[in-house]
Design a protein that fits this description.
Blueprint lengths: L2 H27 L4 E3 L1 H5 L7 E8 L5 E3 L2 E7 L9 E6 L11 E9 L2 E10 L11 E2 H6 L9 E8 L11 E5 L2 E6 L13 E8 L5 E3 L4 E2 L6
Parallel strand pairs: 1-2, 5-7, 8-9, 11-13
Antiparallel strand pairs: 2-4, 2-6, 3-4, 4-5, 6-7, 9-10, 9-12, 10-11, 12-13, 12-14
Amino acid sequence: MNKKAKRRLVVVGGIVVIAMLVIVAIAGGGQAASSLSIGDVLGGGYEGKKVQVSGSVVAGSITAEGSSATFRIAPEDGDASQALTVTYDGALPATFGAGVVAVCTGTVTDGALDAAEMVTKCPSKYESAEGSLTVSGLLEQGDAMVGKDTRVCGYVRGEVASVNADHRFTIESQGAELKVRYDGGLDEGISDGVAVVVTGSLGEDGVFTASEQPAIDEAVSE
């Protein structure tokens, strides 16, 4: 074998070795997350490890600043006092909110979960608009309806916002519009033009605060 052939063999061999090292590095960096319970993580021993944990978002625990959110999750059918703090940097889906089951994947850091991925499981809810007020009917009664439990129906107008927004969406019926505020998760089917029924009360600021998950009225469509 001449020197040129030997040199070519050495170069090819080097390329093969480098390619193998890259494959190993990629495989190592993309290792699957361990699926754990909240109790497992709180028990320690997983610092710096990639894990996946699911739990119900604790009411009143959500804080958001810019694209970063911090909240706590507790076991769905367990001890509500046993909660894990989660930080998540990314856009919050409209389905995210208090009481929603969040499946979070990330790295355990200082006893909390630094989540890189999050998906939510929010049960769908359908309800008839029968017996509810239209937006126009609600507003016509003015201050008399402020703070009173009621049901109002209308069509969603515009985009649906995440839980950290001033209000989640606007509904319209009989030519009047009403902003709706809600700190829980929304059915993924709620979008522009969908008929919804919202239970809650009208605030002094003119915004309607929902006390439970807004429902889709599947019997009505535009």
